Amino acid sequence: MDDPTCRLAFRVTLKDEKGVQKVLYPTSPQTSLKAIFKANSLVEWLDGATINALKPRCRRHIYINPTHVTVAEDLKFFLGGAYILDDGSRSKVIPPTAAKRTRADKSEPEPEPDQPYDKKAAK
Predict the structure, then answer these.
(1) CA torsion 32→43→79→75, rounded to 10°?
(2) Strand (E) or helix (H) holding 35
(3) Which of 8, 75, 117, 118 shows the greatest Cβ crowding within 10 Å of its Cβ?
(4) 56: number of CA atoms within 13 Å, CB side?
(5) Beta bridge partners of 82
(6) Strands (E), the chain
(7) What is the biggest distance separating any 2 CA atoms in the chain, rounded to whole angstroms?
(8) pLDDT tens digits, 70-91
(9) Which CA distances in Å does 62 have to 4, 15, 69?
């Protein structure tokens, strides 16, 4: 089981009232499994995954607007949103017994604001 959300980061660059550039990396609370499950689904959706590809994967959230009247039978559970837990079971809420994974150690320092993030940008 993997958490593709580990590849997701939002970098916010702004200038304060004195014109000094600031760089922020917004984070969600470490206890937010809901955010992790939703971000996992977002990252895979951005990579081109469909609902049918997401529904068998653990640690995912699928939301289907409840006003949709034509939803396949195997997707009706996801009307209004539902989670797929570590064991593959489905739940409308994340139970308090759901396991939180530890964060990876930061092995590399964050790049400075003017440094490129990948090799393509460096060329």
Answers:
(1) -130
(2) helix 33-46
(3) 75
(4) 2
(5) 62
(6) 12-15, 21-24, 60-62, 82-84, 90-91
(7) 57
(8) 888 989 999 999 999 988 899 9
(9) 15, 36, 17
